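Researcher: Next entry in the queue.
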Amino acid sequence: MIKKLVTNLTFWVLLAITAGVLLGHFSPATAVKMKPLGDYFIQVVKWFIGPIIFITIVTGISGMGDLKKVGRVGGKALLYFEIVTTIALIIGMAVGWIFKPGSGINTKVAGTADISKYKTGNASISWIDFFKDNSTIQVLLIAIVVGIVISRSVRREQVLHYFYIASSYVFKALHWVMKLAPVGAFGGMAFTIGKYGVASLLPLGKLMLCVYLTMALFIFLVLGSLLKYYSISILAFLAYIKNELLIVLGTSSSEAGLPSLMEKLEAMGCHKSVVGLVVPAGYSFNLDGTSIYLSMAMIFLAQVFDINLNFSQIITIIGILMVTSKGAAGVTGSGFIILASTLTATKVIPIEGLALLLGVDRFMSEARAITNFIGNGVATIVISHHEKMFDKGRLHQAFGHKGLHRVD
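Model: Structure for this entry, 408 residues:
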């Protein structure tokens, strides 16, 4: 029993997160210095994202053979992303409207927070810069082209053989790197608690509670319902990816678990090509948690400044966020840039309200990252089922026959 516990990655990540919280609370100065541990771990994992996406997509498309199916999968994924993120936006605004987290907030709790970098220029995201700076999208597009070329080559099988060999080595190296996950989780959590402190949560505690509650509702009701339609339990799926969820929690970055998520989705029955197309694209375009946060932040700021938004203004905000939220990945400070862009476009809520969110944003980034992460996993499962490219036998093996509803 003890030997099994000591070799369990979940145990060590939980222990590291707990240690990080304790160090951050009792020795903030020391805890802040732990930041490089989290940053370096995320950076090392990010080195694997490009190769894994490239190899997965190339082998998936080449192995699929039917290029029309590849285009159909991509089109369905983008349509799914738009529908689900729009639902997330509406849920975020609805919960904010009902619970009114911004009512009675004193704007002085923002202190001397500096938002000057979000007020300069036109506070907008350039889509040219988004594609230029987002390496995930670049690798995705290049891999699609390479996969199509190889699929039409007479030496397709021989080339694929070398890609499969490369894939085995890349994932083997990743498994060794993931053993350092507790170190990264410790560094990330220690820095967060040491830098901002639990006390900073109190003034805006109601907002944080609403954000976490809304994301939980979205995961279990919306995403849970989608999985239940295909006879899969959301609880079983979360248990299956628990190690990755803890790593995302500790590092506040969905990137930290992205390569492992792709591997686990394939292991549970999703076709390699679907995993390769949906997960990388979802990382940039299927940001459910970010959508919830952005819409709720808009309602929160309107309530802080006692601004009664009419129906037309709400529809306008949702419409703007439907577009701008898609640029939230791969852009530094994107959350606040998007909020600033939306505030500037609507010209209804003062942009100075951003200062209120700076102090607690880090504590809500974990919820955003986890929700985005789970959302992309569910999207891959849904698209795989819809395309009849899901192996239910592998699902039983991965889940150990537990947590499943009736499988037809």
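Model: The chain is about 75% helix and 0% strand.
Researcher: Noted, moving on.
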